[in-house]
From TrEMBL:
Residues 6-320 form the D-isomer specific 2-hydroxyacid dehydrogenase catalytic domain. This is Glyoxylate/hydroxypyruvate reductase B. Keywords: Oxidoreductase. One of its GO terms (molecular function) is glyoxylate reductase (NADPH) activity. InterPro entries: D-isomer_2-hydroxyacid_DH, D-isomer_2_OHA_DH_cat_dom, D-isomer_DH_CS, D-isomer_DH_CS1, D-isomer_DH_NAD-bd, NAD(P)-bd_dom_sf. The keyword Oxidoreductase applies. Belongs to the D-isomer specific 2-hydroxyacid dehydrogenase family. Its EC number is 1.1.1.79. Residues 110-288 form the D-isomer specific 2-hydroxyacid dehydrogenase NAD-binding domain. It holds the Pfam family 2-Hacid_dh_C. It is an enzyme of class 1 (oxidoreductase). The lineage of its organism: Bacteria, Bacillati, Bacillota, Bacilli, Bacillales.
Length: 329
């Protein structure tokens, strides 16, 4: 029998066709609706491999639903939606899609920073809604980006790629990370700072840290309070790293001057959410890695990883590095 792969969201025919050469493929056939839990559970019971989205909760129930599951390939670099501990115990390989999305995500992150700083979205709406009365000296005046200080929280590969862009804008670069990055300090002139120091000194605070028990709710009311009143907060990692109520209060009280958000505590965020009523918030629907080129590369990497595991090889981008295939009898 050919191995069975279940994909939790509709993918392009070309991708499915390639997989069908070697495997039986099932797919949740909707682009905009996540797979319901019950369907996922039924499919997980018979699947040898799952290709999943960051919006799917791959918990113990899913991972232990069947006896055949050998690999979960998540179409994202982040894997906070997956119970990796249980996967390790069950001998299931967990794969993500790092590297191929680094520059694309850094482009979006920097774009979000620029949009928030220069009020690009607000300004574009003024023109399209017919509210542009005349050129005027302080019309939609934003904040400079060049020569300002950027503070990057989470200096992984994406953080580094954002720092490269910041260097091109002649910004001062601070960063905070669990471990210091001497190469980044040398090559880009980035300066390591404690979290408190970074928060207090930066004009742009850019959050790129993965969501873990340690980083959950890292940005509290107190943290926003320590920022400059002119500071702009950018989040392109995961929503739950931020206390969203605290962010709203800080913005509404003028304790910080703006925010650019690609991620939210609950996605999709409700259009009535107080944050979205503020003119100084630029909000995007979690599209950090969403270029056609990169999403295609991410899908290909998921396929390669699934193939590798099902053929008894080590996948290219394994999350649980200690994984060894279990011989199941
Ligand atoms: C997107 O947020 C990802 O983790 O790839
Ligand atoms: C963001 O998702 C990161 O991994 O830095």
């Amino acid at each position: 029998m050919r191995p069975y792969i279940y994909i939790t969201r509709k993918l392009p025919d070309s991708v499915i066709k390639e997989m069908q050469q070697k495997f039986d493929v099932g797919m949740w056939d909707h682009e905009d609706v996540p797979v319901p839990k019950e369907v996922l559970l039924l499919e997980a019971r018979k699947a040898d491999a799952l290709m999943t989205m960051l919006s799917d909760a791959i918990n113990e129930t899913v991972l232990t639903a069947g006896k055949n599951l050998k690999v979960v390939a998540n179409l994202a670099v982040g894997f906070d939606n997956i119970d990796v501990k249980t996967a390790c115990r069950e001998g299931i390989a967990i794969c993500n899609t790092p590297d191929v999305l680094t520059d694309t995500t850094a482009d979006l992150t920097f774009g979000l920073l620029m949009a928030a700083a220069r009020r690009i979205v607000e300004a574009a709406e003024v023109v399209k809604e017919g509210n542009w009365k005349s050129w005027s000296p302080l019309l939609l005046a934003g904040h400079d980006i060049h020569h300002k200080t950027i503070g990057i929280v989470g200096m992984g590969k994406i953080g580094e790629a954002v720092a490269k862009r910041a260097k091109g804008f002649e910004m001062n670069i601070l960063y905070h990370n669990r471990t210091r990055k001497p190469e980044v300090e040398q090559q880009l002139g980035a300066v390591y700072a404690s979290f408190e120091e970074l928060v207090g000194k930066s004009d742009y605070i850019v959050c790129l840290t993965p969501l873990t028990e340690e980083t959950k709710n890292m940005f509290t009311r107190e943290v926003f309070n320590q920022m400059k009143r002119s500071a702009i907060f950018i989040n392109a990692s995961r929503g739950p790293v931020v206390d969203e109520q605290a962010l709203y209060e800080a913005l509404a009280a003028g304790e910080i001057s703006g925010a650019g958000l690609d991620v939210f505590e609950k996605e999709p965020i409700n259009a009535n959410h107080p944050l979205l009523q503020l003119p100084n918030v630029v909000a995007l629907p979690h599209i950090g890695s969403s270029s056609v080129e990169t999403r295609t590369a991410m899908m290909q990497l998921c396929i390669d990883n699934i193939e590798a595991v099902l053929e008894g090889n080590k996948p290219k981008t394994l999350v649980n590095k200690e994984w060894k295939p279990l011989v199941r009898v």
